[in-house]
Amino acid sequence: MIMVDSLPRPTLIDFHGVSMTHYFTSNWEKIQSFQARPDDIVIATYPKAGTTWVSFILDLLYFGQTTPERQTSMPIHIRVPFLELDIPSLLLSGTEMADNLPTSPRLIKTHLPVQFLPKSFWEQNCRIVYVARNAKDNAVSFFHFDRMNKVEPEPGDWNSYLQRFMDGKMVFGSWYDHVTGWWEKKQTHSKIHYMFYEDLIEDTGREIDQLCHFLGLSPSVEEKERVRGGVQFDNMKKDNMVNYSTVEIMDSKISPFMRKGKVGDWKNHFTVAQNEQFDEDYKKKMKNTTLQFRTEI
Ligand code: A3P
């Protein structure tokens, strides 16, 4: 049994033009040859965009009624495997966990940029739910996550971190490339449902309705209300099966996984100068896309 504290923090590597760490590339052949099933549902995000929130919503929609014991006994990372994660001797790899899932549909999480998604998901025409979050809050959330997650590279101080975020030197690469890459793909691929964290905060019920429409689900009004209530931040924060408090590689004492759950927390982190520089750079990087984000609601 490997001790988490003996795992050194990884360093970033350039992996086919995308910054990654070996924890997400060492199993590459198995990831790329992963066999999808037509009813698999992929939850794709840039890290810290609301992956766990949407994973829990989908898990409740599909299994909340039929197998409620999942919710009380299986941590979310077991219910919804993280496809590319590979920390040998600590956990089964994401591909093995997905292969072993007994339920149907399988809910599978990934942070891969669109060009890296295993081709079987496209061949099987699987439904994909992509969640995006505005860059400023996403960067802040990622910074605190990297502080508390022992298998992430050392974050350093906030100023240098923000610079690296702008340079795309983050695990899973550039936020700008990730959100726009999936957005472009969505324009020609009808099986991608592109959601925004800010919309979920604004009206979770409306977003659940849209998700159900995309997935072809028709839960009762009561059931939808149960899901909406169950996935509220305060409920998830105290639920050990979704708040990652049972996961050894994360140190909630440094920063909890369910940290703030707000739109606009970036204002507590960005200096005026950082904000101006960020906005100027953002305009250049995002000038060729129709994708729009809200940094406050
Ligand atoms: P913060 O760090 O800003 O609080 P991911 O699951 O992709 O890693 O994203 C984690 C982020 O989503 C964290 O953001 C977390 O608090 C937030 N989050 C998770 N569940 C949420 C919920 N029910 N409501 C609002 N935010 C939520």
Automatic annotation (TrEMBL):
Organismal lineage: Eukaryota, Metazoa, Chordata, Craniata, Vertebrata
This protein's UniProt keywords: Catecholamine metabolism, Cytoplasm, Transferase
Protein's UniProt name: Sulfotransferase
One Gene Ontology MF term: sulfotransferase activity
Enzyme class label: transferase
SUPFAM superfamilies on file: P-loop containing nucleoside triphosphate hydrolases
Primary gene name: LOC115361998
Family membership noted in the UniProt record: Belongs to the sulfotransferase 1 family.
Record carries keyword Transferase: yes
GO cellular component: cytoplasm
Pfam family, one: Sulfotransfer_1
Subcellular location: Cytoplasm
